Amino acid sequence: MLIDWFTVIAQALNFLILVWLMRRFLYKPILHAIDEREKRIVGELADAAAKQTEAQEERDEFQRKNKEFDRQLAALLSQATDEAKAERQRLLDEARQAADALSAKRQETLRNDAHHLNQAISRRTQQEVFAIARKALRDLATTSLEERIGEVFIRRLQGMDGEAKAGLAAALKTSSSPARVRSAFDLPAEERAAIQQALNETFSAEIAVRFETAPDLISGIEFTTNGHKVAWSIADYLLSLEKGVGELLTKKDTSQAKAEPQSEEPQPQTQSH
Fold this sequence. Notes:
Blueprint: H1 5-140, H2 143-158, H3 162-174, E1 179-183, H4 189-203, E2 209-213, E3 220-225, E4 228-233, H5 234-259
Parallel strand pairs: 1-2
Antiparallel strand pairs: 1-3, 3-4
Helix pairs in contact: 1-5, 2-4
């Protein structure tokens, strides 16, 4: 069989031209497109990995922030609970203190009321006793009793010490008005004369005297001149006794107030008269 070398060479040449053309216009663009696609896929995969990494970081950050928020919320709740307990305890303490203060004030008020009531009863009893004594003495006073009182007054006048006598003598000399002798009853002439004589002898001078009646005097006689006074009466004894009893009650009240125990309920005190 004869080989047609021209045909073979032409076909080989056509094949080479076809290969070159395919390589030039088909294979290279395909390879270039494949490379570009691979590069794009690699880029997209890298971008996807970066986005996944970023998403994971954001997820981790969100979880961290969520845990931090839960921790802060728990801390705030615990703080609010502690503050609420502290405020509740403070309000309870204030209420207890206010109740104790109110109770103490009420007890103190009750003690003061009981103390004042005892004082009032004691004072009223004292006043009534001395009022009854004065009334009884006034009712029992008679002219004969007044005459006896006049004798006692003369003895007192004659028994004055030097200083009192000198002061009364000076008052008599400087007085521009007569001295006064006051008594609860109108003294008889004999009694007046006896008193006048006693005054003249005591001060060695003629003493001008004006006799007056004073119903407020209780069984007594009073001699006054220029601010000086010589007196004797049962009323003076009553006044002295009343003053002493008043001072005794005041001292007793002061001692009881200092020694009074601070009890839950005030105990009423009794006083003897």
